[in-house]
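Exercise: predict the fold of this chain.
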Amino acid sequence: AEVVKEGMEKEKLDEYISAYQDQSLRRLITNIYNPVSEEKRKTLVSQGVLKKDTYETLMAQLPAAAQLDNENLNLLVSKFRALLFLYPQHIQPVLDRIMQTNADEPSFAILTAALIEVDSDSAQDALATLIGKHADDWEILQRIIPALGLRKYLSASLEKTLLELRLQSNDQMIATTAGLALSNLCRNIAERE
């Protein structure tokens, strides 16, 4: 009788352990598949990319950008994008730097690429300002406008700027490219929603 009682207690203990493990596993699975908001995901990714870099440390890397290989160049763009996403107060100083930079310099390409990739009103307002300054310069706009057409975010000021270029530019390339970018942006936004 003692052996039977001990066997039953072991079975109950095994059942209890099994039920506990199943419950813990269900909680774990629920937590794994509990989605993180898009904003939180972007913040976490940006923090991981930026690490300990600051506006000052990234700007200090720009003069040597011409010597970087593609992988490190892309990393630098990603770090600037992360910086501008996490700390939008740096958008205006970056725009000021772009405005003072020759379009053929690597820093122009790096900073504009980073600005284009930040989907926020302040970043796109800065791009609208940049585009407005160079409204007749196809050599510069061809580096900016097509990339905007790939985004899924459109601020009111950028929409207005692209529409003005589409309707008022005397340069057919600029007008057509602005129109295509605007239609692509609208399609991308509609697909996202």
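Check your answer against the key: The first helix runs from residue 2 to 32.
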